[in-house]
Write a structure and sequence with these properties.
- The strands form 2 sheets. Strands 2, 4, 5, 6, 9, 10 and 11 form a 7-stranded mixed β-sheet that branches. The chain has a 4-stranded antiparallel β-sheet with strand order 1-3-8-7, with no helix packed on it.
- Helices cover 0% and strands 52% of the residues.
- The chain contains no helices and 11 strands.
- The protein has 120 residues and is mainly beta.
- The protein starts with a strand and ends with a strand.
Length: 120
């Protein structure tokens, strides 16, 4: 069983930056694809960014603004968010996807989420 704990959310003005962190415990962190999803009020959860041994991938709407990184020695994954927009307001979730499991599906592990609010 893998436990994920996110931190770093908060209130920021548009154009500002935040750095989200997620610490994992249990399991073999280096084997997992780590990712961030988000869910805004009234909307479905959506993919933001992922990172595995082969590198990172991003949703189009965050390319050039967000950067995902991981530290396998510390079992952490981070999401650096720059040039934040109001539409980035959402609860951000960290997820760990084991081999053989499709990203974002129920077979992965999820954190409780951290709120990011971007004001104008």
């Amino acid at each position: 069983q893998v436990q994920l704990v996110e931190s770093g959310g908060g209130l920021v003005q548009a154009g500002g930056s935040l750095r989200l962190s997620c610490v994992a415990s249990g399991g073999t962190f280096s084997e997992y694809t780590m990712a961030w999803f988000r869910q805004a009020p009234g909307k479905e959860r959506e993919f933001v960014a992922a990172i595995s041994w082969s590198g990172g991938s991003y949703a189009e709407f965050v390319k050039g603004r967000f950067t995902i990184s991981r530290d396998n020695a510390k079992n952490t994954v981070a999401l650096q968010m720059n040039s934040l927009k109001r539409e980035d307001t959402a609860v951000y979730y960290c997820t760990a996807t084991p081999p053989g499991c499709e990203l974002g599906k129920g077979c992965g592990y999820w954190g409780q989420g951290t709120q990011v609010t971007v004001s104008s």
